[in-house]
Amino acid sequence: MHSKRWLRIIPVALIMYTISYIDRTNVSLALDPSISKMMSDLRMDDTMKGKAAGIFFFGYMLLQIPGGYLAAHWSARKLTAILLVFWGACAVGCGLSTTFRQFEIMRFLLGVAEGGVYPATLVLLAHWFPRAERARANAFWNLCMPLSVAFSAPLTGWMIGALGWQKMIMIEGALPFLWLAIWLYFISDHPHEARWLSEQERTFLQGTLQREALARETVKKESISRAFLRPSVVVMLLVYFLHNSAVYGCMTFLTEGLKGAGKKSGLMSGVLFAIPYLVTAVAMVLVSWRSDKSGERRGYLSLVYIISGISLIGSVLVKEHSFWLSYALLCLAVPGPFAALAPFWAIPGETLPRNVMGPVMGLVNAIGNLGGYFGPVVVGALKEQTKSVKAPFSILGACLLICAALVFLLPGAVRAQVELKPAGAV
After folding, report:
1. 372 pLDDT more than 90
2. Closest CA to 285 of 10, 8, 9, 12
3. 67 pLDDT exceeds 90?
4. Could you report the per-residue pLDDT of 47-56, keeping only the tens digit for each?
5. Which of 398, 373, 393 is nearest to 383 (CA)?
6. 89-93: long-range contacts, CB 8 A cutoff, minimum separation 24
7. Torsion sign, CA atoms 260, 157, 81, 52
């Protein structure tokens, strides 16, 4: 890939959202009572732990639709820059909290701050990468999710032990301020605004994206409200809600799945926490590449959900017999929902008219991310009752198997009959 687009847009967007994702995952380690005093300091039980991790997503949903709309009709670059400042302030505020209520409020506001970034970045990538590249572009950008955990978890675990949970959260929370200038310098909203782009590639992109837009517009234009009621959009909402329930329910209580390996330091806990996410990064690249090469979205979605769901259920069933077999199955369970992101988010860009694509993506991300609240809350409440994650993790695995069936109700792509690889392009 020697196109400047891949070297300029993707790394900057990836690191920007990696910073965002660190603010979500560091809480999972901070809330582990075996390595941190956060739960005792804020007087939290497992149910409150689930709420503290999940309240983020109630705030997160508020800017999803406005964020998608503003990115599509104003500027994804400027909107994200404003949100970088807001979320940095809120992330530092989480570390300053001294009571559960203060932390809960700051987590909610952090969710509001980060809420518009995801749909804005999806719109930005749709402006820069044609259909034949889009799943890979989405996947490389979404590598921020597993990579943020894989690389930050050991450091976060060490910082908790060396500095305490509050200083760790404040230091990691200040990172958006450092990335703001880089974002503004490197990112442009559209190819025609980028002076660094060659004339050949600019012409190729503008022509290709315009032809793809015209192919989508063969479907009769519709109002945003009507688009929200499409059966396919309702299915996407349900799939993404169950998807996020599994992702964040598992992530918040993943340290419970790591118990059984003997006494561990904060660093060792971070390493064990990180390894499934390194596997995830590899799976995301492979699935996105195969999906783009074949043009198939639904089949790959179903496959990764099935593998993940079965592995998650299996991990809790075999744990009492073998910790390491259970851990190996966790390493297969965690990647599925992340590997699904690239083909999942390629579908609306390939099947919806341009005028409703941004708002629909915002709606799906908003409602779907409520699963990020209900997943940890349900897991926390069931763990409180059963004193084990066997039942809640089995339920999350079943949610992923339901997703595997539902994705076949989504539409296939509306294919544009265009040539997507001029000489010298990616």
Report:
1. no
2. 10
3. no
4. 888 888 778 8
5. 393
6. 89/113, 90/173, 91/23, 91/169, 91/172, 91/173, 91/174, 91/176, 92/169, 92/170, 92/173, 92/174, 93/173
7. positive
Q: What is the mean pLDDT of the chain?
A: 84
Measured CA distances, 398 to 196, 339, 364, 383 (Å): 48, 18, 21, 17
Q: Do residues 131 and 420 lie in contact, with contact meaning Cβ atoms separated by under 8 Å?
A: yes
Percent of the chain with pLDDT over 70: 91
Q: Percentage of the chain with pLDDT > 90?
A: 28
d(CA 365, CA 318): 34
- Region of 43 on the Ramachandran plot (φ > 0 left; ψ -120 to 50 alpha; else beta): left
Q: What is the H or E stretch that residue 381 is in?
A: helix 371-386
171 exposure class (CB count in 10 Å sphere: 0-12, 13-18, 19+): middle
Q: Can you tell me the distance from the alpha carbon of 64 to that of 370, in angstroms, rounded to the nearest whole number?
A: 12
**With 70 as the cut, is the pLDDT of residue 276 above it?**
yes
Residue 257 pLDDT grade (very low, low, confident, very high; cuts 50, 70, 90): low
In this prediction, residues 274-301 reach a mean pLDDT of 86
Number of H helices and E strands in the chain, helices first, is 23, 0
Burial class from Cβ neighbours inside 10 Å (0-12, 13-18, 19+) for residue 186 reads middle
Domains of the chain: 8-191+204-217+227-409 (1.20.1250.20)
CA distance 132 to 89: 38
Q: Choose among 290, 331, 365, 287: nearest CA to 122.
A: 365
Torsion over CA of 50, 53, 58 and 60, rounded to 10 degrees?
-160
Buried b vs exposed e over 74-92: b needs ≥16 C-beta within 10 Å? ebbbebbbebbebbbbbbb
Structure tokens at 299: 């089949």
Rounded to an integer, what distance in angstroms lies between the CA atom of residue 339 and that of residue 352? 22
Q: Positive or negative CA dihedral for 73, 77, 83, 85? A: negative
Kindly indicate the confidence band of residue 181, based on its pLDDT and cuts at 50, 70 and 90.
Answer: very high
